[in-house]
Design brief:
16 helices, flat, 20-stranded antiparallel sheet, 22 strands, alpha+beta
Length: 548
Amino acid sequence: MRMGLFAVAALLIAPLSTFAADPPIVFQTQSPGKILSDVRSIAKMIAGEKAAGAINDALKEKLGDKGFDGLAIDKPILGYAILAGKLEDSVLVIAVPVTGEKEFLALIERIGGEKPKADANGLYEFPTKDEGVKALMRFDTQHAYIAIGKDPTSALNPKNLVAPTKLYDPSEKALASVKVYFDRLPKEIRDQLGAGLKELKTKLDELRLPPEASESARKAVDELIKLGSRYSDMLQDAESAGARLILDANTGEAAVEVGLTGKPGSALAKVIAERKPSTNKFAGLVTPDTVVGLKLQLPLFAKEIQNAAVIGLEAGQKQLNEMAPPAFKGLIDETFKGLVRTVNDGEFDVALSLRGPDKNGLYTVVGAVAFEDPSGVEKELRVLYKNELDPKFKAFFNLDIAQVGKTNIHQAKIGPLLPPEIQKVFGDEASFTFAFAPKGIFVAFGPDAVNVLKTALEVKKAPSPAFEISLNPSRLAKLIAAAGKEVPAGFGSQDKLIPVVVLTLDGGKELRLRLGTNLKWLEGLGTSLLDAGVGGDAKPPASVKVKD
């Protein structure tokens, strides 16, 4: 009876032993049909119907009337890497969804001009230019598994193939993504990574500046070395890392994103979980009537970075004081003391907005930079104004022309001094205004700068990317025209603020760094370029056989 139970258990366990191990690196894409549809939509958005037609024409010329027949274009392309102790022995496997073996072989022939050679074991071999690399293929579970490596034969053994269900993550919405699981790496590679991190830490500890470097420079570098050593220690607890390529034809977003997770309970996981979404004290300065806007928060998230910045500021303060006239030393000291306070606060924010056109067709610039308690700077500037400024220039200034709470607004009337081309944009009555608020220094320049600054002083801290440049294409086109320049044909149809460059760093379960843009700011911009290249007589777009 006992032997019978053992036999049953063996029968149950035996099939499990034939399953392929979870690969350390996996990747996937959206379905070929969706990728092609998104690319066409983006091309049409930027350069019109001609661009989409050009893509169709190119595909038809390459693939003929059968198009993608043989490829299951409604299913994702999957893949994985089988890593060996020696990286040169590793194998890359791509699982391409197919509608049928015969049809896919015909598609390969249409693309490459010849079919891969078949052998008696169900394998197909592609010709390669590198004699040290082979490319083999096997059909299995409605996929063509293509393995590339020095000797990929074993990877295509049916018992070693990784099933598509184990590779596909339905929650992943990126155009393409890759993920590395560190605990699945071969021991030899894990040991190499660990040794590499230890070597990096040793090199950081041994890093020294040349003898001629100043003492302050040495101290600043020491702080950054501490930071590097601390993070190299934490990286040894990394659980997984990933990268994503994002393209959304509906929203226009295009981005590259990298992510990192730490082992549960580790110092790295704790640091990632504590990372909060970034904010900006002056995010509200970028309003709907903005032509071009900028928001930035300097990376002062680590104490070592703050310490290094303070050391540099104190050295700069000392150096400037040695060169400056005695009357300016008070201003220098107050400026650097405030900058040190701001750095230690950890939120060094900047925002800038070019707004317009107003009802008179003119524009205004307004901005702010974080500065903890600039009252001392304001006091020293008043002293310099009183004692050092030439009387003939004092007539341009109106100190304390307005007030918001306890913050005074000062004005310099410089519009009449501007060259005609600047006056066309900002007006001949434009003035420069500035204010020293408790948490920042505010400036505005334009025809109604005083009232603009009054409103600016009321802005509150709000969520914001760590870095963002945005623009309104329609308003930018009007600005270009107001400056007497030619507006590119087709540009300026979008009358809303669109991100051009966006950088975010968010934590939680995964630390995600994303660099992206919204391609809608390019809408219509490529039309004139395509017209110049294609010509005015565009033919109707040719169709390509695609089963959506």
